[in-house]
Specification:
Radius of gyration: 17 Å
Helix content: under 10%
CATH architecture of the largest domain: Sandwich
Shape: globular
CATH superfamily of the largest domain: Jelly Rolls
Order of helices and strands: EEEEEEEEEEEEEEEEEEEEEEE
Structural class: mainly beta
Distance between the termini: 17 Å
Number of domains: 2
Number of strands: 23
Length: 236
Amino acid sequence: MNTILHKSSTRGVSQGISWLKSYYSFSFANYYNPERIHFGMLRVLNDDIIAPGAGFGMHPHENMEIISIPLSGELKHQDNLGNQAIITKGDVQVMSAGKGIFHSELNPHPHREGQFLQIWIFPKERNIAPRYAYKTFSASDFENRWNTIVAPNNPKALWINQEAWLQIGKFSANTFPFYQFNRSENGVYLFVIDGKIKLNDIELSTRDALGIWQTNQFSFQTLSDAEILLIEVPMH
């Protein structure tokens, strides 16, 4: 098993935008670190906080799989395909930009910040027809088990144009969650949304991350109640 540790405090931070506070796990916008460009096919993991009534106006994307996971507040999506939705915690949104799409992401609430994770994954096939979908999950879907939220082959999850799987689990303290890779050649980027865990001799706290590859399974101990996001992606 190979691992790479990314502590929360080592992430990049957005600059110069009054309505946005972003923490970048990988090089993005003003943050550039040649050792943190991507993890396999995972290109972006941004932890975004958007001020009330503000957000990203209409802008283009192409050939990227873009996943949004609200953590608090609201996020309003609108695109040139005619899709509109307001998503909140418990919802997950996937956009396959394909050959090209324009969209906006706004916090529609007048008084409350919105916080969400934005994830970009390189696609398996380029220039496909763009598509958009979101799905609502209940809190019980994640209690002391992994629940697949994004996958290329699971009708209960959101579809993605890549051999990638995203899982979320909320585990009680002093449990030992186990994960089996879907493809042995993939890697997993483990991101602690909240809580504290220990994998082998590595302790991870809120917003810490650990890349794991050259194995097909792993387990860890929860040192507190913990919410974990796993992003399994091809490494090449």
